[in-house]
Input
Amino acid sequence: MKAARVSPDRVYRAALGGAASLVFLIVALIVYETTRGSLLSIRTFGLGFLTSTVWDPVAERFGALPYVYGTLVSSGLALLLAVPLGVGTAVYLAEIANRRVGALVSFVIELLAAIPSIVYGVWGFFVLAPWLRAAVEPWLLAHFGFLPLFRGYPFGIGMLNAGIVLAIMIVPTIVSISREVLLATPRSLREAAHALGATPAEAIGAALGAARPGILGSVILALGRALGETMAVTMVIGNTNRISASLLDPGATMASIIANEFTEATSPLYLSSLIEIALVLFAITIVVNGLARLLVLWATGGRRFAVPA
Amino acid sequence: MSARGHIRRRAIVSRLLIAACYAGAGIVILPLALILWHLIAKGWPALSFSFFTEMPKPVGEAGGGMANAIVGTLILVGLGAFFAVPVGVGAGVYLAEFGRGRFAGMVRYTADLLGGVPSIVVGVAAYGIVVIPMGGFSALAGGVALGILMLPTIIRSTEEVVRLVPQSYREAALALGAPRWKVTQQVVIPAAGAGIVTASMLAVARAAGETAPLLFTALGNRFWSTRLDKPIASLPVMVFDYARAPYDDWNRQAWTGALVLVMIVTVISAVLRITVRRVPR
Output
């Protein structure tokens, strides 16, 4: 065999490797496009973009703080609701339910993770909002109205609605990963705990301790989804440019302002400001997701899980 | 005495915590069940054959369908698959067959990161990559955005499926003197074929429900269009527009559109998830 001949093995491998390296190209293109698009806004407003609360397309002055605030608060509220419920459900599925029920329920939950976000938005807008307006929010105002968290009018649409819809949307992520992490912890942990006289809950606690990094990873991954979630939030948050301590008030998120105003942005600076919001959102989710993947990887000893994307 | 009280307290706490887990599971499943129930209750009445075959009617006229949006979604999803499936399957096969080095590790991590990029950001990027150079909104731009969103899932699940092909297949083929590339191309890939198709279809079905990246790429269209260089209607965007419109008729149709969308996405996913377990490996 001649040494100079190019081996077909190498060609084949290079072709497949080329397809694989397109991933880098795509991520680089996303970074390039969002950065290039926001240059005008970055040059005009500098860091003040992130601290200003003015959003005035007529005067061409833009600040992203209300949207950053809305994104953080709605996602935080979603985590507050989804984490205890999600982890509890994962414990139920992995430790308490019998194998068949556990498998069936997690199958259904994973299917529900495939429901498009616009559908959650339609539900939140037409079903959840009237219910919040008629029942929940008046009750909150009557009993907890002394807290700054529950002031104002029962619109039904607003931060509370967005937080609840987001919680419903991210719970499947927390449940399915936490369940897999729990199932991956050694049985002997529970057996040892039982042998020492632990109650059932204490034995589960021992397993939860071992699964903690993985569960934390699932929570951060869910946070990443909540931060970038667009359509459902756009439909239920009310889209007003304001920062209010009250969860009953409408607000807006980084994703929702882009979805609402991108096609209406008539001036270059307006468009550039929206693209800069996308860049900031992109940076935040990259950091959050990178952290989550590392945690899940570490917790599971390098095994990768099929994460509902 | 106090020791016994201590044990009883622990037993009670244990019961309470486990009851809380049951309650948690119930509370998680309840809203999901409610969403499905409302979807069917509100979407079913307006669901008819004409919903699939007729064009949207102007405000005030009853009836009409979303034929253009359904076809538009099929075109957009088809375009996305056209871009993403060859690349994704190639990358997945690479990771499964040759993916032991640092390069492969970086590909995996980058693909996972790409999977976490919000779809609205992908839409903004596609706007810059396709819409601006082409000088206008187009089906092509929407297809590119959907393709980018499909890619990470296709890569990851293709890798998983190809890894499941027994090592003995490769060894047997190598023992017969087949070169490495022939082993992969003619033994491993066919053996994993059904799984690869399923994995790709799952990603494609998931992308059919995406709305945010289409808002300013494919834009939407009230009229019939199948041209790739013009704005095109899609089911999710039409549901969004109809749900926000102040007309009861349109709101009802939004529910029906949402129901059809969920049927498209979940029926495909469910069928695939059940059949993929039966695929002989």
The mean pLDDT of chain B is 90. The CA atoms of residues 202 and 269 of chain B lie 6 Å apart. Chain B has two domains: 2-43, 52-278. The first helix of chain B runs from residue 2 to 43.
